[in-house]
Each structure stands twice: as C-alpha cells, then as structure tokens.
Amino acid sequence: MVSASKFTKAERELQAARPFGYGPRKFYESSHLVKGSVDKKPGDEAKGAPAPEPPKPEDVKPEDEKKTKRVYVAMTSDRGLCGGVHSGVARRIRRELTERKAEGATHKLVCVGDKSRGVLRRTYADNMLINVKDIGRIAPVFADASVIAAAIAESGFEYDIGEVYYNKYFSPVKYEMTIVPFFNKFRIERAPNMSAFDDVDEDQLESYSEWTLAALLYYALKQGAASEQSARMAAMDNATKNAEEMIRKLTLLFNRTRQAVITRELIEIISGAAALK
Amino acid sequence: MALTFAAGNKVFYDKQVVKQVDVPSFSGAFGILPKHVPTLAVLRPGVVTVLENDGKQNKIFVSSGTVTVNDDSSVQVLAEEAHPLENLDRAAAQETLSKAQSEFNSAANEKAKAEAAIAVEVAEEIVKAASA
C-alpha cells in the first residue's frame, strides 16, 4: 500500500519530466550527434520491434576509442528491496567497462545512489569519480540533478562523451535499462550538422551543455525513481503474499496449542475433583 | 512549429503547434517564428510569451533554462521553474528581492556572492513581471 502510493506519485511526476529527456535528444538528433530518430512512437517498441541500438556517436573512430574520455553515470538509489533495478544498471556498466578495457584515467564513474557504488567500487575503485548519496528517500527534484551536474562539472575531469545509465519506465510491470549520451561543449561545437545552426557564443554553449546535462540527469532520476517504485511495489506485494501463507500456518499452530493447553487444564481440574470424592 | 515547453513543475506545451514564441536569452530576447534558423540559447529569468494558433497569448515566467530550435523547426523550451504570470505574487516577490539583496551584501566569498546575485536577478525580474 505504501509503495503503491509512492509509485503513483513517482509516475505522476515522471509525466512532467518527460520533455527534459526529449528536448536534448531531439537536439542531438538534429545536430547529428547521434544516429536515429527520437520521434518514434512508443507503440513501435511495444510491437516487439528490435530494441533501439544504444545511440553511438557518429564521429568516433575505433582508434580514437582509446583516447576518448568517457564518464559513466549510474542512476540508482540508496534503497534496496526492489528487485533487479539497481543491479541491472551496475551489471551493464561493468560489462561495458570490461569490454572497453577501461583504464582508470580515461573512464570515470559517477555513482548516483549507494547501490551502484556498492557493486562497482571493489572492481573499479580507480575509476570512481563522484559518489552521490541520499538519493531515493524522497522524490528527486530538479535541484538534486543540478547538484550532480555541478559536481561533475567541478570534478575537473574533462570528458568527451558521457553516458547516463538508467532504468526507463514503461508500465508498472516493465522497465528497461537504457543509455542516454551527453556531450561536452567541444563535441557539440564539432557536431556534424552544427553548421546548420546559428552561431552561438562560447560561454553560452558551455552554459547550454551544462544545463542540458542537468536536464538529462533530472529526466533519468525521475525515470529511475518510477522504475524503482514500480519494482518495489511488485517486491512488496510478493513479500505480503509470502507472509500471508506463513501467518495462516502460524495461526493454526497457535490455536492448536491454545486448545491443547485448555484441554490439559480441564483434565487436571476434573481429575482433581474426582480424586477428592 | 511544434513547441515543447516544460519546467520541473509542469509541462505547458507538448509538441503543440503554435504561431510564435518570444524568449528572453543571454544574447538578448528574441522571437521565434516558424522556419527560424536552428539555434541554441540559454534562458535568462524573464517572461516567455507564447502566441497560440487561435491568437491567444500566454505569458509564462521562467527562472532559467535552455531553448533549442531544431532544423525541423521544432522548438524546445526547458526551464528549471516556470509559472504563469497571473500566479506571481508581487508582495512575495518584493520580499524575496529584499532578502536576496541583503544576502548579496553579506556574502562572504565569491561563490556565495554569485549565487546571491543570481537570486537578486531572478527576484528583480519576478517583481518586474508581476507589476507589468
């Protein structure tokens, strides 16, 4: 019941956050920073169409791959008891890091929430950049995303490409691990279709990319919160069901024992009375 | 021209077709009509005016954010906080402004000073928007 009401709230608030994810992705598409269209209808995916390729930046050649500085943002929370929501994100990042033979200097991790940190800190201690705690107790607000974005900006790590790993919420029974990229201002400046855009001042572009990161983080936080609450609702429902069965068994045992005690006392009283005659 | 206008608190327009959008940005306030050249801009505190297709004008105050005009002539305005002009309370804004100003004067370091300066700027704009 508690998690159900929290879930309803998270889902409602997610509605307001959706454009925050749509806006930046639309820009990436029109500036050709990433391939693929964002204007797909949600129905296309539901029909079992092949899952969309994780957006790959177009202008990265394999030889650059080693030099590209990447930052991975794991969007989880501090709280567990919600199925595989957090471990899914952490596992995916671990796989990517292993595949890219990530070195500590060029691949950095930003762990939002204690759960991803707990999984990743042992194997990838060198890659840790920032840990963000106290996520998930109350519903995330835009200020939380701003704080994380500011921490990334102030960390002094100059990334080329960033990726936010989060659980995208579809329905109360479905969420999916999704990756959304973000870029620094130099990448945006060099975007293939940037020439179509009007000239933008350097500092404006910097503010723009920083603000966009905050917007994306906010979007991912909200998506993550909704997925987490939906998963927790299912987990809690199962817990209640399991407990019900246990309660039934224990109540039966309790009643039997109680009756046994009453019967014994009655026998004692009766046999005592009979002995007095 | 499809306008998406959202803030942390509310979605105002979701890919809705409108006639014109006026936004305040750090490179100056500008109006966006269909087939505007694609551009990026950072919003400054001020009033966004949306002229809907039926000629209705909608004025919304925004604190900060970004505006993106894409090459398919769709516009995304993302704001941190946004409220319709009629929801602004002038007295409360005045109060916030004086509080922000005193904070600005007592700010100890550069960062606190910059933060207070932003607060003053936002409050000033709210007062201006609310009294207009």
Automatic annotation (TrEMBL), chain A:
Signal sequence, renumbered to the chain: none
Q: How does it sit in the membrane?
A: Peripheral membrane protein
Show the CDD domains listed in the entry: F1-ATPase_gamma (cd12151)
Q: What are its GO cellular component terms?
A: mitochondrial inner membrane; proton-transporting ATP synthase complex
What is the superkingdom listed in this entry's lineage? Answer: Eukaryota
Query: Which InterPro entries does this chain map to?
Result: ATP_synth_F1_ATPase_gsu (IPR035968), ATP_synth_F1_gsu (IPR000131), ATP_synth_F1_gsu_CS (IPR023632)
User: One MF term in GO for this entry?
Assistant: proton-transporting ATP synthase activity, rotational mechanism
User: Where is this protein found?
Assistant: Mitochondrion inner membrane
- Principal location listed in the UniProt entry: mitochondrion
Where is the region Disordered?
1-68
Q: What are the alphabetically sorted keywords of the record?
A: ATP synthesis, CF(1), Hydrogen ion transport, Ion transport, Membrane, Mitochondrion, Mitochondrion inner membrane, Transport
Q: Does the keyword tRNA-binding apply?
A: no
Chain intervals with Basic and acidic residues compositional bias: 37-47, 55-67
- Pfam families per UniProt: ATP-synt
Describe its partners and assembly state.
F-type ATPases have 2 components, CF(1) - the catalytic core - and CF(0) - the membrane proton channel. CF(1) and CF(0) have multiple subunits.
**NCBIfam families in UniProt:** ATPsyn_F1gamma (TIGR01146)
Entry's PANTHER family? ATP SYNTHASE GAMMA CHAIN, ATP SYNTHASE SUBUNIT GAMMA, MITOCHONDRIAL
- Membership in a protein family: Belongs to the ATPase gamma chain family.
Name of the featured protein? ATP synthase subunit gamma
Q: Which organism is it from?
A: Leptosia nina
From TrEMBL, chain B:
GO molecular function terms listed in the Swiss-Prot or TrEMBL record: proton-transporting ATP synthase activity, rotational mechanism
Any single Gene Ontology cellular-component annotation: mitochondrial inner membrane
Q: Does the keyword Transcription regulation apply?
A: no
Its localization reads: Mitochondrion inner membrane
What are the record keywords, sorted? Answer: ATP synthesis, CF(1), Coiled coil, Hydrogen ion transport, Ion transport, Membrane, Mitochondrion, Mitochondrion inner membrane, Transit peptide, Transport
**Domain of life of the source:** Eukaryota
Q: Report which residue ranges the record marks as coiled coil.
A: 90-117
Q: Which SUPFAM superfamilies match?
A: Epsilon subunit of F1F0-ATP synthase C-terminal domain, Epsilon subunit of F1F0-ATP synthase N-terminal domain
The residue ranges of the ATP synthase F1 complex delta/epsilon subunit N-terminal domain are: 3-82
Query: Which Gene3D superfamilies does the record cross-reference, listed alphabetically?
Result: ATP synthase delta/epsilon subunit, C-terminal domain, F0F1 ATP synthase delta/epsilon subunit, N-terminal
Domain (F1F0-ATP synthase delta subunit C-terminal): give its ranges: 88-129
What PANTHER family does the record tag this protein with?
Answer: ATP SYNTHASE DELTA/EPSILON CHAIN, ATP SYNTHASE SUBUNIT DELTA, MITOCHONDRIAL
Q: Which family does it belong to?
A: Belongs to the ATPase epsilon chain family.
Supply the name of the protein.
F-ATPase delta subunit
Species this protein is from: Leptosia nina
